Amino acid sequence: xxYTVGHYLGERLAQxxxxxxxxxxxxxNLVLLDQLLEIEGLEQVYCxxxxxxxxxxxxxxxxxxxxAAVVTFSVGALSALNAIGGAYAENLPVILISGAPNxxxxxxxxxxxxTIGTPDYSYQLEIAKRLTCAAVSITAAEDAPVLIDxxxxxxxxxxxxxxxxxxxxxxxxxxxxxxxxxAILTDxxxxxxxxxxxxxxLASFIAARKKPMLLLGSRLRAAGCEDVAIRLADALGCxxxxxxxxxxxxxxxxxxxxxxxxxxxxSSKAQQIYDWSDGVLCLAPVFxxxxxxxxxxxxxGDNVALLDSRxxxxxxxxxxxxxxxxxxxxxxxxxxxxxKKDATLVEYRRVHTTPAQPAPAAPDAPLxxxxxxxxxxxxxxxxxxxxxxxxxxxxxxMQMKLPHGARVELEMQWGHIGWSVPAxxxxxxxxxxxxxxxxxxxxxxxxxxxxxxxxxxxxLPVIIFLINNRxxxxxxxxxxxxxxxxxxWDYAGLMNVFNAEDGHGKGFRATTGAEMEKAIAAALxxxxxxxxxxxxxxxxxxxxxxxxxxxxVATANARPPVAR
Length: 564
Ligand code: TPU
Ligand code: MG
Prior knowledge:
- This protein has helices spanning 5-15, 30-37, 50-64, 77-89, 123-131, 144-158, 182-185, 192-207, 226-236, 270-276, 324-335, 343-351, 369-377, 392-398, 420-430, 442-448, 452-457, 473-478, 491-499, 513-525, 544-557, and strands at residues 20-23, 43-46, 67-71, 94-100, 134-138, 162-167, 212-216, 239-242, 257-260, 279-283, 304-307, 311-314, 317-320, 384-388, 407-410, 435-441, 463-468, 506-510, 531-536.
- By secondary structure, the chain is an alpha/beta fold.
């Protein structure tokens, strides 16, 4: 059998640990898809459209470290690029692979289908360059190994998406076989001199403070530092808070954990401890308008040290070219024989009171948000992963207590409503051993609903909580108007549509606590397909955190232009 460009690409994807790639067929990628089908251990998984295909690969990358989506030129790729922007924002190495015009057509003056009707096809590559860390176009088989390796290596190093387009007549051309995967996995080491100085600076930052604490951000996972952050917390003995987008990136049963720091909408007492602390070590944070609650809670100044995946800023000095992992390892070593700096944790224990567990609602009372959240909390086992959509689902999941091992996935930087449905699909394909739970609002669901059909197709026992509050409640809290009302759907009824003649999905509508409980029991018994539970609540029934946060964000949005 001839070894081809498509084989090379597929083998590299398998080598970096992918067991699957997501695809939508089109004539520019059909031959490539044939080649990928021939790679052992790399399964092809189909999506309903390319936006969902991109988000499925993004969800898969959350479960497996990387993902890949294969689409056709322009009509497919331009939709997928939205999800690639999301992968960039969320620090996930998703490889977008697009079929492209025949190599003989490039520069020929020919006008081709699926293009904008001009003979220059470079626009897609140009757009991709803005949304990825590496974008390559393969129009000759000889160039394929170096270009493919460059794109995949850069994506894995940077934890950002990459783009590979392959001319449709090139993917089945002969190609050499790839060497060992080490060639694309190894990274440049930290600069030793900079590392020593950075650790000196951080050690004196800590030594000069009586009440340090740790604040963990959403880039911690991409930096590969979740485990070492636990050891740093142990070495310091101080309070540890996570930022909202980093929920579940630190074990919530850890003795030092004090909850989410999110300005006014923090977990109980976390903001008080943050304000009291005289030195905050921020690990891999992202400070944007949402995470700073409309710029009202933005850690900066002399008492803040910023530790990013390859950059440290503390004590008025900046250090580049050091891996966060190396920095933290060395810092832990320095702290080893020193007394614990546990003042923030001691203070937290003094002021913290354990909130009473919410009592179950009367079984036949109309379903309310609090009862819905209480029941979902009950499903959070150590192997649970909750994929929570933009909307009040963010605030609901933030209040949940995670047992050791439970994970939460959020897309707070990109915030594309509808992300959660395909991302849940991709995540469930990537992590079949986990109990995958989606929380998605009615408005969000309407963007990407059809991907539930792929969960049916692959018999994935995902549980989807669809919160039907008849509209865009998060937007209502920021700025209301008629545009926040949506057409109602029979969401539970959709499952019959998706099942057609061979599916095992189930749909339920819960208007009371008792109905929701029954639906959950049925969901747990359904091992052959997804279960969608439509939770019907009032339009105004949302968390108070959403209301407070929404007000702050609205204020930030409404800042008048600065006079010139
Ligand atoms: O819980 P709830 O009602 O807030 O969630 P639901 O029903 O999913 O509504 C979400 C409303 C929403 C919109 C319309 N949140 N953000 N947006 C703006 C928006 C529009 N289009 C995209 C692709 N992403 C967005 N975030
Ligand atoms: Mg809604």
